[in-house]
Specification:
Blueprint (H helix, E strand, L loop, with lengths): L5 H9 L6 E3 L7 E3 L11 E4 L25 E4 L8 H8 L4 E2 L1 H17 L5 H12 L1 E5 L6 H12 L2 E4 H7 L4 H6 L4 H15 L5 E4 L8 H8 L2 E5 L4 H9 L2
Parallel strand pairs: 1-2, 3-4, 4-5, 6-8, 6-9, 7-8
Length: 247
């Protein structure tokens, strides 16, 4: 368990206290300093019980890397804003199953609802409703891959706001032709893309159609990933050529 506060100790008690703690300051014998994380690389379950990475104190870096945690079966983070915390994103990088704080929040709400009303709640069904409402869908792919067209249909179908990054940059006079005509560079354009990604990536309930080159920037994609499911549209070269020729 990362942390040693009230949340961490509550989790430990629920687990029968068969845990180790990773902390900034040691207080007990069952604790390790965060910089000693390598001593616990054989762990099977990792739970973050700290507010690290919670909005608005967003960060792209996990407290430590998971590359050498070869036995991890599950990563859990109590954070639910953003939905994909730095630890969750690190787990996804290595295909490690993960649960965020939203799952825990819904479960807690259903238990309290039963205590007050005596009525059962279908946790899984409720969780799916909440997830469908909150998560963004980010569409990436080459130009003419259909991001805007499919994005608009998805947004209408799922009752989400449609956001087209190219359209926003054009309205703000930060599109590539305007920047180049004013003496700027493609790096300036990428900087505006990154700034926009950080603005919209922390919002919820959107379908976001990205510019074709956004995927080239790791920091831009990280910003879009916080509250999103990312889908790559990859039509054939023949289809792309046909669409390009029809313009």
């Amino acid at each position: 368990i990362i942390g040693n506060g009230a949340t961490a100790r509550s989790i430990a008690m629920a687990l029968g206290n068969k845990v180790h703690f990773l902390v900034r300051t040691k207080r007990h014998d069952d604790e390790y300093l965060l910089k000693e994380y390598e001593k616990l690389q054989d762990t099977e379950y990792l739970i973050n019980a700290t507010p690290y990475g919670t909005y608005p104190n967003i960060t792209s870096n996990p407290l430590f890397p998971l590359a050498n945690f070869k036995k991890l079966k599950m990563v859990i983070d109590v954070i639910y804003n953003p939905l994909n915390s730095p630890l969750i994103l690190e787990a996804k990088k290595f295909n490690i199953p993960s649960i965020n704080g939203l799952d825990l929040l819904v479960k807690q709400a259903s238990i309290n609802y039963k205590l007050f009303t005596g009525k059962e709640v279908n946790d899984e069904a409720l969780l799916q409703v909440v997830k469908r409402k909150l998560y963004n869908i980010v569409l990436v792919g080459l130009s003419y891959s259909g991001k805007s067209t499919i994005g608009k249909m998805l947004a209408q179908k799922l009752n989400k706001k449609f956001v087209d990054t190219d359209d926003i940059l054009f309205r703000e006079h930060h599109d590539l032709p305007t920047i180049l005509n004013n003496g700027g560079s493609i790096d300036d354009y990428r900087e505006h893309e990154n700034k926009l990604a950080n603005q919209i990536g922390l919002k919820f309930n959107q379908v976001i159609a990205t510019g074709g080159g956004m995927i080239l920037s790791a920091s831009t994609m990280q910003a879009l990933a916080y509250n999103s499911i990312i889908i790559h549209l990859n039509p054939s070269l023949k289809t792309l050529k046909k669409r390009f020729d029809e313009i």
